[in-house]
Structures
1.
Amino acid sequence: MNKKIEVVLTPALLPLYQVQGKNVVIIDVLRATSSICVAFFNGVNKILPVSTPEECMMFKDFDFLCAAERNAIKLPGFDMGNSPFEFQNPLLKERNIAFTTTNGTKAIKQSKELGAGKIIIGSFLNIAVLVNWLKKQQQDIILLCAGWKDKANLEDTLFAGAVVQALRDDYALDCDSAMMAAHLYQHMQNDLEAHVRLSSHAQRFKALHAAEDDVRFCLQMNTAPALPIMQGEYLINTLALTA
Amino acid sequence: MNKKIEVVLTPALLPLYQVQGKNVVIIDVLRATSSICVAFFNGVNKILPVSTPEECMMFKDFDFLCAAERNAIKLPGFDMGNSPFEFQNPLLKERNIAFTTTNGTKAIKQSKELGAGKIIIGSFLNIAVLVNWLKKQQQDIILLCAGWKDKANLEDTLFAGAVVQALRDDYALDCDSAMMAAHLYQHMQNDLEAHVRLSSHAQRFKALHAAEDDVRFCLQMNTAPALPIMQGEYLINTLALTA
């Protein structure tokens, strides 16, 4: 029997799913998982997802760079916020980063607590590498949309749909959320940016007069091929390890 | 400023929304809210949504008909399950019904506890009557999909999308779930049945060798115009009151 692929539209729904042992892909397109791919593509050594800004700041003493965002805004006193442009800096090479974001790090922690097999970072920027790796694993897959404050959002659902589309011939699709996500992606893929610009999160960016360019950046395909996977407490770029 | 319309994809997400005072439309297309419309269209007097089969059965002593379904199956000893065909019986005229279903009655109770303004029953069978009434109210609207065991499902999302489509010119749409639902409906509306037959719930029906005709029945437009609204503990057909 085929392995299963399921889409969880927000972390609030994750406890309804059988997570134990499954590979969980964390999706926070605007912007945490996009920025993580960019960081690794630019040579970052490892990333430590932490829950709170206070916890994040503690790692300054251990020569980490510290990145913290809340409500789409970089917190004062931190090296970086959550914009992918901040992670393109060549000075990041070989550095370690402690990272806390509104939705992304929470989804990682929660997957861990529920006994996920492997926890992988997904974004449009690394989609081909991700899909190829998932195909090879032959494991049940949960695509976990980080959403916005536990509500579903368009951009994460669309990315989940893109992955479902790419894998649907090889996996059993017994999940309405996966069907809906794939259908949405299929009909929006030729004009992703226009659709995502109408989404509530993009509107939120606009209201902040910030991060508008981030929307376009985060919808590019395969511009930051990396394969960040949780190993212990850290995200490591396993693509670098196997290359 | 325009009033808001939001879609809640499953009851598990309802606590994230500001429900107080808003009109909440309960959506359980397969099959509770469809059957409720059919019951009222066939002259039922009032319907009492109850939580458990045990509670439901107690109302036999008060001359209620008792309807109970769990996991898509009619429970033994009850007058009816959850199939709309069972509610087309002319013997139901003027009768009272106590009704408990897997997902539908739970969504009603929860909306009440969170302080909803009016709680209205929605299905394709009464969509025009519902939409006209909502337009006249000029209140914020929450479209609450009953889903399946707290997961999102296709048929309820599609119905929510149909209502959003009908109202979007008059309401503010600051909700990605509403955008997604409307988009899905727009692209599936010409072949609703084929799409819904692929959904997990329709597949569940198929596995039970039951209720397959119910899918087609519940996707008909405006064949049971009724406007069931909670008044105190009961659902009443307010269309009958104003006609």
2.
Amino acid sequence: MTCAVLCIGTELTRGELVNTNATWLASALTDLGFDVIENVVVDDEASRIAATLERLGRSVRVIVCTGGLGPTTDDLTTQAVASAIGVKTVRDEASLEAIRRRVEKAGRALTESLSSQADFPQGADILVNPVGTAPGFGVTVSGASAFFMPGVPREMQRMFEDQVVPRIRTLATRNAHQVRLRTYGLPESVVGERLAGVEESFPGVVIGYRAHFPEIEVKVLARAGSHEAARELCDRATTEVRARLSDVVYGDVDDTFAGIVGRVVRNKGLTLAIAESCTGGLVGHMITREPGASEFLLVDAVTYANSAKTRLLGIDEEVIRGHGAVSAEVAAAMAEGVRRVSEADVALSLTGIAGPGGGSAAKPIGTVFIAIATADGTTVTEKHFPGDRHQIQIAAAYAGLDLVRRACA
Amino acid sequence: MTCAVLCIGTELTRGELVNTNATWLASALTDLGFDVIENVVVDDEASRIAATLERLGRSVRVIVCTGGLGPTTDDLTTQAVASAIGVKTVRDEASLEAIRRRVEKAGRALTESLSSQADFPQGADILVNPVGTAPGFGVTVSGASAFFMPGVPREMQRMFEDQVVPRIRTLATRNAHQVRLRTYGLPESVVGERLAGVEESFPGVVIGYRAHFPEIEVKVLARAGSHEAARELCDRATTEVRARLSDVVYGDVDDTFAGIVGRVVRNKGLTLAIAESCTGGLVGHMITREPGASEFLLVDAVTYANSAKTRLLGIDEEVIRGHGAVSAEVAAAMAEGVRRVSEADVALSLTGIAGPGGGSAAKPIGTVFIAIATADGTTVTEKHFPGDRHQIQIAAAYAGLDLVRRACA
């Protein structure tokens, strides 16, 4: 069953506010089993509100709207709806009484502008507002069921869950099921190529992609005659997707890459130490953002200056002078040094050139040496990342965490 | 001059992602002087994309679109546009060459799916992408100028500023001017109370707020008969706003808090050392994300385990055992320890309980001790932050950086 979300307000069309209401409603409607085909924002202009409602009413079954129900002069939704469906507005006595009680309880007087919130298009289905003054309402526009709610997120969410959901639940067709997988290690185009033909092999399945640097999220959406059948189809297609991406899928939508790496370290009963230079604390931040990091992370020595590498990690000044701070030798010495001072089982180090300054022909911006030191010895990997300073830092941090994961696996 | 923003992607209609692109573009277009009357999101469905473009083209002069230009099967924008304007797609050799160079530089092969990003509707005005593989393009749809850009925010923003703005600037009626100020240190409601009456004192000025935890951005938008007059009005109102918020405004829209703190340290010719525990590297990451950090940051010792505090910073085990790792005494010892080993002028330390575990009645979750050590001695501040783990980490990092700024001022 198709539906649309309409948000009304010039503060939104001007970009003064991020439209989290649209995201919240679209997600809730999708979870209910609706197919949300359009989210629209229009400014506070009655003719545009009316025209948009008529247009949406012709193409979807349910329209969920927020905004423009308050007491001020820019709140035009009720009038616009009445004009769109060709009725007058009438004042509802029960709603007026509820507004009066609420206003008087707050020690204020009932003004005409507050009273006008009890006006509704004739014949509307009134939605009470237990947490604010402006009630909502439902009407039929161009054949679609349309529901109007205040724009305040707290009031809107409560009204949607308590009153709109019971009215639309039976219209939803839960014949879709989706699984979202998180991948790291391949660019989007290669992930897409790996999955070429999956949609054809599993009719009813649509594969979607979302890039969130440096990760690619893969979405497997299945539609079938029933929710049961959709879930079963989704499971089969997801098994195929996982098999084709087995080297890069690290978890599902609730996982983070650093969280998964941390879990691998902890589950092996190992401890971790880190020495960072170009990434400047980012690896430590990613690891410690997740709860439970204290169970395995001993230390992250961000030895930015050469003197810090010598003093904290005991690296021979001659090694730095001879090879440069960005070198395989210094990366190895950093990993070994932080492992020695912390007595950790596994140590990761990163040293590189994030830019915008500091590059050379021999070691251009984006050059990063990553070392892993364990009881079995030390290995150093040289990487070259494209992008700006922050992208190089993020790419290096992910590459370092990936090496930790492989070292502990 | 009217315009509309169109964002394409099923991840948006389903509410899997907050549509920050629409907000960014609407705000940028408003700043340019356009009247943004509608923001639309449609799913990855070619006929819907085409129908929406035709509809918008009939009612606005400029349409700015993002999304659906990538290499995967759900990227349908180019085909949909070609069908909307009744032309074929043709491959552009110069764009193909640029994609090839970019792909080969990253050590990958040019595949057909990547090459397809060089396909454009016949006659399109190509917008090069210096920071990604998918170029954008401009066409005329139902009489409106329509521009299509990738959905990746970084690529979209760069393409909009470098290439779309020069093409549409002359169409805008610039009778508005806006200044955006960044503040740290007061909640949104208090910032609003401080600015009560400013709009009344400067008719034509609208004050807007945007919370970006823990910062509040204040926008001063002025409209007048000409751009000159709007700028002059905006300047006068902004002077008043700055005066009322002088203790919390730290910079303008292009500044970051860590960047400003770093600039203060560097301009004084001082060096900085950090010792973090509960913030786990976040302070170092914030500082080193900005170019130039190597000029003043010597080290950030993320001493997560107690053993690391002892080994790297030389903190007496008895101090940790006697007062607990989260204590004023340990915070002071961490700051003094990292200052001693690094020989930095100023040292910052943070130790606290970010949760979700580890809290107690005496030291609940959110308790953070922050110390500053200089040649003049050591001061410790005890803070209690609300929120979840990540919010506590961010709030503590900001508070620590703010203390560094004040110590160096």
3.
Amino acid sequence: MKSSKPALYTSLSPALLHLYDVSSSIVVIIDVLRATSTIATVLFNGAKHIIPVDSVAECIRIGKQIEGITAGERDGQIAPGLVYGNSPFEYPKEFITGKTLVLTTTNGTKLLHMALERGAKGIITGSFPNISAVCDYLVAKNMPVILGCAAWKDRVNIEDTLFAGAVINRLKDHFDINCDSSKLAETLYNDAAPDLYEFMEQKYASHFQRLSNYGLQNDIRYCLTPDSANVLCVYEGGKLIKG
Amino acid sequence: MKSSKPALYTSLSPALLHLYDVSSSIVVIIDVLRATSTIATVLFNGAKHIIPVDSVAECIRIGKQIEGITAGERDGQIAPGLVYGNSPFEYPKEFITGKTLVLTTTNGTKLLHMALERGAKGIITGSFPNISAVCDYLVAKNMPVILGCAAWKDRVNIEDTLFAGAVINRLKDHFDINCDSSKLAETLYNDAAPDLYEFMEQKYASHFQRLSNYGLQNDIRYCLTPDSANVLCVYEGGKLIKG
């Protein structure tokens, strides 16, 4: 019996994205700590739009050209030459409303451009702060979905896998999920669901360590909090905009 | 404080192997359903050795040359042109003792040759049937380890991840594990440990489906049974031998 539901797959690393049929799917870019959580926050707080770019040099160039705010990190810290970083707390309403952010991050923007090059039917970004907006959108579109984890330099990470699992946990009745990575992600999420922060701490997840060493525990807590910036973030015409 | 224990990493797919320092590590090739389970069984039952080859054509050529038994599968069934398949039950003592098997499989032999090309310090094969031999060996060697999941055509699968998790569960006090994939694998294993078969059935793992559709439930049960063919399988000089 063939299912009439659209398919959902999880790509646990950018190095696995080519295994999936990107060109017929909506790709959800997942970079929980912290790129896609910050993107949701920036748009939720009223930014005009965000221009995601691959390199620090391009970020500086475009930032100058459009008088935008240059922001981004490499290895968890503000990249040299940029003015702002990758923390959601750097972008309160009173600062960011009406402005344009030019953003480059270690993993998230790279994956977004991979999905674009592979001809994704649609690209949105996903994070716990905007999980409900993501799920509502995917159900309404009723199209094949790839949950694309940005991972850490291609290495699978716990937090992006957890978010994929959280989405699957909510959407599994709406999609045909014949994908071991998705089942693995959901199993992980079910284990972690009672307290995501405690789970990350107890597992001593690698990027949890990295950010904790910079004293960024509050960033981590925020990035694991559902619907704290519940807005749809859609990539259209080179920009991330509020959907 | 730097740990004096050797590092352990898990590569969830051959497409991720390049991320790890293969050339300083022992690589454990994991292809639970069914290549590495069958390898353990064949050596446990007294075969002289196994020659793993990449292609069906090479399997036939070498099989003729050395008067070996040609065996292998593609997509879960005996490959056309070969005489035997990839089921552990095809190789009882009375048949296989003293013989040489020439073996090609969809995923396992490919990963083994990748580890070889990347200059692994040592290569062994791992499966539930020989899990204790694998763990004892890794502890005794006290060297960096990569648990290499053969996966399914580069897609992460549940059963190889489960085996990696089972090894980590036993060895975590002996190794320095700063690797989210390893933590993910162990979490999955802890969930599944009470009944591995039931877990695979309940999750409806993709290769579980494939083999079940061929009526191979007994193969699956056997391949998930610890220490049913508890022998160390070492790759040396182009051959898998009893260690």
4.
Amino acid sequence: MRITDLETPRLLLDLDRLERNTAAMRAHCRSKSVALRPHVKTAKSLDVTLLATGGEPLGITVSTLKEADYFARAGYGDILYAVGIVPRKLAHAARIVRETGVDLVLVTDALSVALAAGEFAAREGLRLSFVVEIDSGEHRSGLLPDAPAMIELARAIHQHPRLALRGVMTHAGHSYATDDPAGIRKVARLECEAARAAAEKLRGAGMPCDIVSVGSTPTVLLAESFDGITEVRCGIYMFWDLSQLSRKVCKESDLAASVLASVIGHNRTAGALILDAGALALSKDLGANAFMPGTGYGLLCDPFTMERLGDLAVTIVHQEHGTVPVKDEAWYERLPVGSLVRVLPNHACITCAAYDSYDVVRGGEVIGSWSRINGW
Amino acid sequence: MRITDLETPRLLLDLDRLERNTAAMRAHCRSKSVALRPHVKTAKSLDVTLLATGGEPLGITVSTLKEADYFARAGYGDILYAVGIVPRKLAHAARIVRETGVDLVLVTDALSVALAAGEFAAREGLRLSFVVEIDSGEHRSGLLPDAPAMIELARAIHQHPRLALRGVMTHAGHSYATDDPAGIRKVARLECEAARAAAEKLRGAGMPCDIVSVGSTPTVLLAESFDGITEVRCGIYMFWDLSQLSRKVCKESDLAASVLASVIGHNRTAGALILDAGALALSKDLGANAFMPGTGYGLLCDPFTMERLGDLAVTIVHQEHGTVPVKDEAWYERLPVGSLVRVLPNHACITCAAYDSYDVVRGGEVIGSWSRINGW
């Protein structure tokens, strides 16, 4: 099948680029002597993840229990669920552990959660594993490494007979606040320092800390050293996107995910092409625009060559319509109503979530359909 | 089941409010002597749509062929697909018509599409129906009513033995550019005038124009007269949302869709509650903020009473995390880690698309699960 046979909008995944991106990150982590625990939150796909882990169902990171469930049942035996759990979700986590035998590592920064998990595990007669979430400067979640509450939480986990303290994790999401490699490198250093400091606190207090986990794609790529770090978590590098390109952590020719759309109208009054890719097909993410003004909701490419179509961008989205202003009337000839374009998304994690599957392509050829596990 | 039994995030639909909203719009259209052709793009649900049409599978509007397919197979026999079609999608449209017998009305503003549809219909031995899309001032899509291309397109449809010209449609999406009722009323008047003018052109040229279709929720509510208009299309009124509230076209107590979320952390360093509802669970739509600054990605409510929780709002979203700044430390006591909140979304059409189903509630009781037909 050719991409011209697809009914738009569709989510395309360029297999050559995906293979290159996943191989490059595995090589990078090998060269840095740190384990890669890929984050599956972007791809949410078994096929993509198997490329990321190098063909074996090795350790992964998930963002939902639904992903944990899905990957555990597919044979992944070492899963870190990287979003703080709450007591209401413990029964689901326990069910996954019981039914699959997965080593599921949970995350929290709240003493009350650890206490509730201890009671739950005792009542249910099972064992739950935790890492303590550390705030390395993003101030989203986590405890500061030197906060008394950090060591208090670790101790509550460690001392409970039904809980296992596995270590610490942090995420330097604020690495996205800059497009300056030196700035990212500094965030990466602080991320590793915070994780290491927390690990040392735990060990100094006689507690185990087997996992010392950091990661965001930019910091994993730019960190100078992973000394004292046992693993890195990142996910967007599999696909890359305009937000990453705008932060100069990838090249345009790395972008593996795109939305295939049709030109459904020419609005010569407004001076615009209208696409059948709007707010749902592209998402309302504008993340790249901070560093690449004019990106809008996505940049247009030739559907076959992936060459950019001038500076054409989707600047307005309605639910199913995307508006692409054109200054040069020649675009109406070049892109008649019914023609195809590919749109590079701002933020692949968000755009891909609108689709149940990828159409996997090499050039203009569709060579497969890979499913995604969306929702919660 | 109670909402406290649900694993978050979940999409809740308040049945009392939904029933009130759908009944009110039916009464409004009756009082204005105009047919209501509800737009199912917000709800994408058979159960919701049956309330909107008053218990019978009457005429509806859809935004995707997947919706057309789904509703046609469920017995809806009169469907307007309100997004411009392209030749690549004609085979799907034809399949729906053949297999269900639905009266499927297609939309275009492009002569090339009409010509291709004529050839396709002749080749396939079937008949396709079209309305011509009119631009009533939004300048998204459609032709101006007095444009020579408008009448030329209508004639190409009308003269083709395999195509049926059914009339004209327009959508005044720019009614959302103001929160002033007088401004909306003016847009509504211009919307009706454009549709009527186009209809008169067609009839004046000896062509039929049985359908004269207008609509956006604000213009349908505020138009003074639907003289010469045969039907109105609107959808968001079933649920309402903060974007509509910010334009003063509904009351806060009308909002029927909300996201049930858990507090998964207290970040006292940053002064924030962290929710498990982020960019995917809420969407990145910020539509209400233009007229209601401080709305962020959504406003927090008590999960049972739906009373607003002060002015708490989600101001930062990551994929699965939502950050809610708190000035008063008392909120940490009132909303401990693990507690539930409901988040009112900016734009229900976009937020709901992240969920496969609604948990239908009356008060704190979950009384059903209604599925949605997402994607394309």
